[in-house]
């Protein structure tokens, strides 16, 4: 049997283990990678490789960035920063048609700049914004769709766990990826706002204007934005100017978030403990995803399958953009059947070399993959954000939430098309770094 | 069975507590290094120590994460299966993972023993690092224990279903 066929069989076995045994994604990749390496090379080499990879990943300085950013996000979450951001955004734009929904997107965008978790963002914003929108008689389809979709901004806006994982898996600079994510996240947020305005123009009953606020009230709400802005500027500014490495920026972000929350007496001891506990299990899950992917990637490298696929695709007599469209479609379908982050980690060893072989800029390609990954949190049947919103708004039928989200999915697709036509939107900030 | 479950739970809570202390230490050490570097000179070996602390953070959270079903899994198809089939699949799954992590724990422990014998030290601080590699082996062993507990629980519920 040729090594490439071994790789294909390995992928089939992996899918079987994932779907029929229900083994966690990271463990499944490690076990199948180990068995494949054992079959292709030897047991001694396989066990040496697995032990070595687990130790080197766990003790890698580069990977220490993961728990730090997650810890920072959870401290901000437990200190109630998202609520204050929402109330500030609400004072400024709440009186527009669809203003409360726009305020939700605005607060999501700002909270995403400190917290990289889409479910944490959706859960917090949902708890704050859904009752408000219900109070002002917003159509539940608009409110539920906005909250579910707004949470996904956290994945594109740095610091993002998905960008960190892509950076670590592909050996790219995390600082560059973070900078590349800023403008696309703003573009995505802008298109979501346009979608809300268009929906409210077509059907004004979807989002009736909220009460007007005075200028004094608007000014009074600003500290809610300033604390998050200060942390973001410290972290991203430090990275941009080269004062911090990504790990240092993460640690400093934790300290800054903690300090801001303690000074404002917004963080309780229980909040710190909860943040620590949640950060530990989420970062452990991410670590093992990366470790499993490393082990599976070693097996694939022995089979030479990723290179064969990349060579084959590069020689196809079709435009690279058609192949890109097929890859993105695979991600959308994959995101429908399994967790989007898990699917990304499983497929990166194949699709990343493929994208590079097709001539795409690795940083731009990573941002496009990140954006398509966000759709996985919204598409049935495993759209995690949909279920978070459903739990918060049990009276809205699940079908209605999926339907309302589809408007925003169109906006996401438009954002990806714009980013493909104008790749500089993602590349201009990393270029300034040089 | 109850005793085993209690021991696993206790071990995981102790380990995750230690992991939390090491995570805070990572933050403290990195921030101290930044300040020290800006004001005077960097703290020698801080990068090395943060990386080693990171290994304890992850390894000691492995069992806890599995305990609270935190590792991402695909259950679209499995949720459609009858309970009995789910139970059997869970037993197979737990046995495979238990075996895998027992082998990994054994392999890293053997390697750590070699480090003790050869007296290998870190590059900058020249300190021993086998305590950290033993910690990773312990984390994997405890994860294996969590899978053993899961497997026994599924076996018991399978037998009860048959009755």
Topology overview:
The complex is a heterodimer of chains A (434) and B (163).
Chain A (H helix, E strand, L loop, with lengths): L2 H19 L3 H16 L2 H16 L6 H14 L2 H13 L5 H14 L5 H18 L4 H11 L2 H4 L4 H10 L3 H29 L12 H6 L1 H20 L4 H18 L5 H35 L1 H10 L5 H18 L2 H18 L4 H14 L8 H9 L5 H24 L2 H10 L1
Helix pairs in contact in A: 1-2, 1-15, 2-3, 2-15, 3-15, 4-14, 4-15, 5-6, 5-13, 6-7, 6-8, 6-11, 7-8, 7-20, 8-11, 8-20, 8-21, 10-11, 10-15, 10-18, 11-19, 11-21, 11-22, 13-14, 15-18, 16-18, 17-18, 17-19, 18-19, 19-21
Chain B lengths: L1 H38 L6 H22 L15 H36 L11 H33 L1
Describe the structure.
- The complex is a heterodimer of chains A (434) and B (163).
- Chain A has 434 residues and is mostly helical.
- Chain A contains 22 helices and no strands.
- Chain B has 163 residues and is mainly α.
- The model of chain B has no long low-confidence stretch (mean pLDDT 90).
- Chains A and B meet through helix 1, helix 2, helix 3, helix 4 and helix 14 of A and helix 1, helix 2, helix 3 and helix 4 of B.
Give a concise summary.
Chain A is an all-alpha fold and 434 residues long. Chain A is 80% helix and 0% strand.
Helix content percent band of chain A: over 70%
Oligomeric state, counting identical vs distinct chains? heterodimer
Distance between the termini of chain A: 47 Å
Order of helices and strands of chain B: HHHH
User: Termini separation of chain B (Å)?
Assistant: 19 Å
Overall geometry of chain B:
elongated
Low-confidence stretches of chain A: none
Report mean pLDDT of chain B, rounded to a whole number. Answer: 90
Structural class of chain A: mainly alpha
Q: Which percent range fits the helix content of chain B?
A: over 70%
Query: What structural class results from the helix and strand content of chain B?
Result: mainly alpha
Q: Number of DSSP helices of chain B?
A: 4
Task: Compute the CA-based radius of gyration of chain B.
Answer: 20 Å
Total count of strands of chain A: 0
Quickly count the helices of chain A: 22
Shape of chain A: globular
